[in-house]
Amino acid sequence: MDLTHLLVTLILIFVGAKAFGELANRLGQPTVLGELVAGVILGVGGLKLVDPHANVFVLLADIGVIILLFETGLATDIRELLEVGWRSLAVAALGVILPFAGGFVFAYAFGYTNLVSIFLGATLTATSVGITVRVLQDIGKLQTKEAKIILGAAVADDIVGLIILAVVRDLGLQGEVSAWKIAQITALAIAFFIGAIVIGNLFAKRLVKVIEKMRTSGTLIVASIAFAFLWSLGAELAGSAAIVGSFAAGLALGRTHKFEVIARELKPLAYIFTPIFFVKIGADVDIRYFNPFNEANHAILVVGGFLFVIAMIGKFLSGFAVFDPRVKSAAVGVGMAPRGEVGLIFAEVGRRAGIVSADLFAAVVIVMAGTTFLAPPLLKMTLVRRPRGMNLVSWLFEPARKRVSRLIWGR
Amino acid sequence: MDLTHLLVTLILIFVGAKAFGELANRLGQPTVLGELVAGVILGVGGLKLVDPHANVFVLLADIGVIILLFETGLATDIRELLEVGWRSLAVAALGVILPFAGGFVFAYAFGYTNLVSIFLGATLTATSVGITVRVLQDIGKLQTKEAKIILGAAVADDIVGLIILAVVRDLGLQGEVSAWKIAQITALAIAFFIGAIVIGNLFAKRLVKVIEKMRTSGTLIVASIAFAFLWSLGAELAGSAAIVGSFAAGLALGRTHKFEVIARELKPLAYIFTPIFFVKIGADVDIRYFNPFNEANHAILVVGGFLFVIAMIGKFLSGFAVFDPRVKSAAVGVGMAPRGEVGLIFAEVGRRAGIVSADLFAAVVIVMAGTTFLAPPLLKMTLVRRPRGMNLVSWLFEPARKRVSRLIWGR
Description:
2 copies of one chain form a homodimer. By secondary structure, chain A is mainly α. In chain A, 76% of the residues lie in helices and 0% in strands. Chain A is globular, with a radius of gyration of 21 Å. At the A-B interface, helix 1, helix 3, helix 10 and helix 12 of A face helix 1, helix 3, helix 10 and helix 12 of B.
């Protein structure tokens, strides 16, 4: 990619994300929903103006979600996270078991082989923590108890997801799984997360002390980003996800007395980088699969529709593992629902191994898109009593003139 | 490049730039000098840990200098720039004519062909406005009259440089130049700059009005960056340099009442992106050419040394085109001296066309490195009477214990 191409891509992403984000906001929806829609319009299913597989775009999107999770860690009190720890683990466990069982049984009943059924089940276990975090940020609910449970469960899910990915990859390539290897991956991932937080805490305090002695400007934000990247790198090398590392780095820096300055200087970086991630997810969705008038899509739509229902119900029920009347279980369940890019990564591995056919991959795209696009409005509905923006249903039934005026002027 | 590789590269850049930037600052030097040194150490001439030709690295460096010039435009009053306009043009003209004539005569006298001599002369005409702007920023002199003259002259030089580049490229590829084509390029570049400022002013005011009506957060900084990128893209398409476009976008937004908020939110982005650019310039320098004990380098060092002296004197004298006793001509001349990446681009075109030999290219690297590394300390010396930091000479003659303690504790 050359500079001209990169500038065109970034301008389209920024303008699209802001325009549709604003529209979503005025329709009473979380802003991130608009950014996803902008991605669909610009991407493979729409105008094909941005290529979601271009190397630079993929890397900038990765940096975007790393910064988002770093920002989230910074704003999260680790003690509150530990307080709800067991409930998070219960939600994560149920949120993996239910969709997996549902997907497996459904596929098996439909006559798919054992291997394909396992793959489909595995694909449904994913949670895209990025989507949920942004929705919680957009609607100002990142500090609620539900948010803490979701955060903890989503991070656990990310670790579990990578273990499942290793299992299915081995199944796909070698037809068998080494229990010893799985145990190793699991132990390493858990050890990394605990180590990242413990060492991160010691390291963060020293880092802030060193930074305070520096005379050049900008050291705090540059060093903080370097720290987040270093922890992301460590997570990658330990076989975990980069965002788990940057989340741990954020938790650690969040306990230093500089956390407010870091959060403030991080904001503009997050504003620039995170839309790249969400537009990329949207750009990956090929909405041509959704066209019911194309007969080739009928089987895809039926299978995708069933899988989508299983995916939603499975994660929704997992929220009820909390067993706490003060916590809105429905919100937790909905918060775990978006599959985002994680589900696609699973299906992609299956496609490359020749296990997931092109049609099944398309069905997974439907599941991914459906859960990802439905989660933001549902999460807002379950967490916010009276929406501050407009109500979509009442808005649709207003006279056209009034509707346009309310959209633009807000009255 | 994958994510792991990108994270390693960025961590090395950030840590290296900050560590050596801090060291440069404590030795009484502009911070940017340390970032350049960090690049040399990490790059092709040093540890080879970062590859200055990796696509993502090059693009992020380009974004870095675009943001730097956008920031500079934002902090520059266009009326002050126009006030010194003629003096800037005189400096730019003399700063192109003198180094070109010097380089051509020297090369011709050394027995090089006409074509090679023209190429070498052209290479010496470049000015890297990025280096000078960062030095002026580092030492807090961006608002002086000298800075305005240098800025105007460097922007003019960037436009002239691209015209010269087009001329030498045609000479190299076709052996002749079309006067009509050159006139077209010149007219288009000048028309673009004037148009970018005039249209930019109208557009910026409307943009700010639209942004003020938006309800989603982060719109101001995202829209400002999109604006800067759009103008950079326009400059590229008009055959001008991207940084000329982003500078014009900054000038336009600098006249709106939101310029202070934009400048504040832009700071963290500049802190993250600009070091990537300076580390990249440093990483391009192969210091093995400087090794005098390698006999193969002797001819390179002699030719490079002569060209370096011509390059420095030519730009230094151009500062005296100002004819104003209140302006420090020496500072203006020194400010025009750094060739940075621009000189290398020229030489690269010549090398690809088979006109510039590997040895001559190495000599140009010496000119580029020499002028780039000498300009920051000289610019500080000529503009700042009593350096606030330490004096390098006195520091070197202190006892070792006191030296280390002053370096760390500043006393």
